[in-house]
Amino acid sequence: MFVYRGDQMLILRRARERYWHVVAGVVEHGERYAEAAARELREESGLDVGDRLIDLERPLTYALTKASRERYGFPHDQEEVTTYNFAAEAPSDWEPVLNEEHDAYRWCSFDDAVSLLHWPAAKDIARTLATRPR
Predict the structure, then answer these.
(1) Which among 23, 26, 44, 74 could disulfide-bond with 1, CB atoms 3.0 to 4.6 Å apart, if both were Cys?
(2) Phi, psi at residue 127, to the nearest 5°?
(3) Average per-residue pLDDT in the chain?
(4) Residue of 32, 48, 40 lying closest to 101 (CA atoms)
C-alpha cells in the first residue's frame, strides 16, 4: 500500500528490521487482494479508505530463498510469492497511528521516499506513482 497526499508519500520504519517500507501484509483466507490491502492499511496505520483504493496494476513475483521462507513462515516447498500493489490518498489533516510493526513514520517527497525505501521493487513503484496524475 502506497499512501500519498499531494506530492508527499508516507513511509514507515519496520520496528524489528529497522528499515523504511510501505504498508504491507498478507492476504487472509477468503480475502480479495484489495480487501487485504485496505485491511492492512487500517491495521498498520489507522487509515480507512473504504473502497477508494487505486490498483496500481503492478503485480510482482519474487523467488523465495530458504531464509525468507523460514523468516516469514512460507511453506518449505513454496518457490515464489506474488505481491499486488495499491495506492490510496490520505486526507490532508490525517496522521497515522502505528501498530506494533512500526516505530516511526515520515511524510516525504517521492524522491526522498525512493532514496529511503529498503526494497528495490518499492522504490520502483514509488517512482511510477510520482509520475501518475493525482
Answers:
(1) 23
(2) -60, -45
(3) 93
(4) 40
